Amino acid sequence: MKIKIVTIGVYGFDESGFFDALCQAEVDTFCDIRSRRGLRGATYAFANSVRLQARLSELGIRYIHRKDLGPTKTVRDKQAAADKASKTAKRKRTTLGEAFIEAYHTECLAEFEPQSLLDELESDAKVVALFCVETAPEACHRSLVADKLAKTLDLEVEDILP
After folding, report:
1. If you write DSSP's letter for every residue of the chain in order, what string do you get?
2. By C-alpha distance, which of 31, 145, 55, 114 is closest to 157?
3. Is the pLDDT of residue 143 over 90?
4. Which of 36, 78, 81, 158 could connect to 99 by a Cys-Cys bridge, CB 3.0–4.6 Å?
5. Residues 73-103: tens digit of each pLDDT
6. What global pTM score does this model have?
7. pLDDT reported for residue 1
8. What pLDDT does 32 receive?
9. How many domains, the chain?
């Protein structure tokens, strides 16, 4: 059976809605592609690494962290500059800047072998969630990772939205 990729961000979800969405999508493997796995404030505390991993474990969802797919500070700074220039708040962003996309491809995706992610999965994995924080996949690097997986390995990708 072929692996299906779903993408999900945390912004816009409450805790129960987030985990319900993962269960409804039948996610069995959760791939955290954040560089930094913490969020400030109580609203999204459930997505901080330790709490997140504990809840996923309770649900029978495997957790893997692929820090190599998290944008570096240099790459994030490119998006911060684009957001500042367009006067767009991070959580209101709907697309990624060209400078970010180019830098992310150069610094992260150029060395990423999609098969390496599949090789890390358990043999019974069917639905893998790529996770970061932004609401819109088009505003998040997870869309770039998903696109490379889809094109390289001919995988189906579905975005889970709040």
Report:
1. ---EEEEE-STT--HHHHHHHHHHTT--EEEE--SS----SSTTGGGSHHHHHHHHHHTT-EEEE-GGGSPPHHHHHHHHHHHHHHT--GGG--S--HHHHHHHIIIIITT--HHHHHHHS-TT--EEEEE-S-SSGGGSTHHHHHHHHHHHH--EEEEE--
2. 145
3. yes
4. 78
5. 999 999 989 889 888 887 788 899 999 999 9
6. 0.93
7. 61
8. 97
9. 1
pLDDT digits (tens, 9 = 90+) for 104-136: 999 999 999 999 999 999 999 999 999 999 999
Question: Average pLDDT, stretch 134-147?
Answer: 95
Show Cβ contacts of residue 64 under 8 Å, excluding neighbours closer than 6 positions: 29, 30, 31, 32, 120, 121
Answer whether 11's CB lies under 8 Å from 132's CB: no
Produce one character per residue of 95-104: b if its CB has 16 or more CB atoms within 10 Å, e if not: ebbeebbebb
Q: How far apart are CA 103 and CA 71, in angstroms?
A: 9
Domain that holds residue 20: 4-160
Given a contact cutoff of 8 angstroms between Cβ atoms, the answer to whether 5 and 150 are in contact is yes
